[in-house]
Write a structure and sequence with these properties.
This protein has 199 residues and is an alpha/beta fold. It has 9 helices and 7 strands, in the order βαβαβααβαβααβαβα. The protein starts with a strand and ends in a 7-residue tail after the last helix.
Length: 199
């Protein structure tokens, strides 16, 4: 069982991206469980994914960095014990701190996870402003990523893309930065780069 955490600030396109990753996994014959976190009372993202016939466990106890620890570990253990899941796709809220999520995994007592991988989506149209206003959150989302996706690259100017490259390099020079547009669809070969197995 592999865990893929898809982080990113509100409005970066995480749900669209997550659905495309899940669809590619299903196309490959893999079984996927999607964990989504909603701050509001109505889980719109979870509802959308259920309509697309994707398995969704929705954890709606508020800010993920504050309250999800009580839910995440039992959910992972249930998926381990009761379902033959190949990949768990976890899409926390845009206010989530990936480092806090990853710290809770020390309490997981199921079979060892084969891999834990973090992808962070960035919005080049807003990143410089967000970097100035919510610096600690943006920094931790970038710093904990194995791969960074600059989503909405089709809408960004050259200057905005340069800003994304500069910020990404400052915070996490080891992470690969890929330019994509989830709205237009992400090439399946690109999605395979973040999947934990090869065809």
């Amino acid at each position: 069982m592999h865990l893929l955490l898809i982080a990113g600030f509100l409005g970066t396109g995480k749900t669209t991206f997550s659905i495309q990753v899940a669809t590619e996994c299903i196309r490959q014959g893999r079984k996927v469980a999607m964990l989504v976190n909603e701050i509001g009372e109505i889980g719109i993202d979870g509802q959308l994914m259920r309509e697309l016939d994707l398995d969704v466990w929705e954890m709606s106890n508020g800010c993920i960095c504050c309250t999800l620890a009580a839910d995440l570990v039992p959910t992972l253990e249930k998926l381990d014990q009761e379902y033959a899941v190949d990949l768990i796709l976890m899409e926390p809220s845009g206010a989530a701190d990936p480092e806090s999520i990853l710290r809770t995994l020390v309490y997981y007592k199921g079979r060892p996870l084969e891999s834990i991988y973090t992808v962070t989506l960035l919005d080049p149209l807003r990143l410089p402003e967000l970097y100035e206003v919510v610096t600690p959150l943006i920094v931790t989302q970038i710093a904990n990523a194995n791969v960074l996706f600059a989503n909405k690259a089709d809408l960004a100017t050259a200057e905005q893309l340069e800003d994304v490259q500069r910020i990404a390099t400052e915070v996490n020079p080891d992470a690969k930065l890929l330019l994509v547009s989830a709205r237009q669809g992400i090439d399946s070969d690109l999605l395979k780069e973040i999947l934990p197995w090869k065809d």
